[in-house]
Amino acid sequence: MESFSQILDSYRQQIDREINLYADQIRRSTKERFGTDARLVIDAFFDLLTRGGKRMRGSLAITGYQMCGGTDVQMITRAAMAIEMVQSALLVMDDIQDRSEMRRGKPTVHKLLEAECQKMGLGGDAAHTGISLALNAMLAGQHSALMVVDGLNVDAERRAKAMSIISQTFVVTVHGQTADILNECRDNVDEAAIDRVMDWKTAYYSVLNPLCVGMVLAGAGCEDTDAIRDYAIHTGKAFQITDDIVGIFGDQAKTGKNPMDDVREGKKTLLAVYALAHATADDAAFLRQQLGNPRLTKAHFLRCRTILESSGAREYAEKRAGECVQAAVGALQNAPADWKKDKIAFLCSLVEHMKSRYA
Question: How many Å apart are CA 58 and CA 38, to the nearest integer?
Answer without folding.
Answer: 27
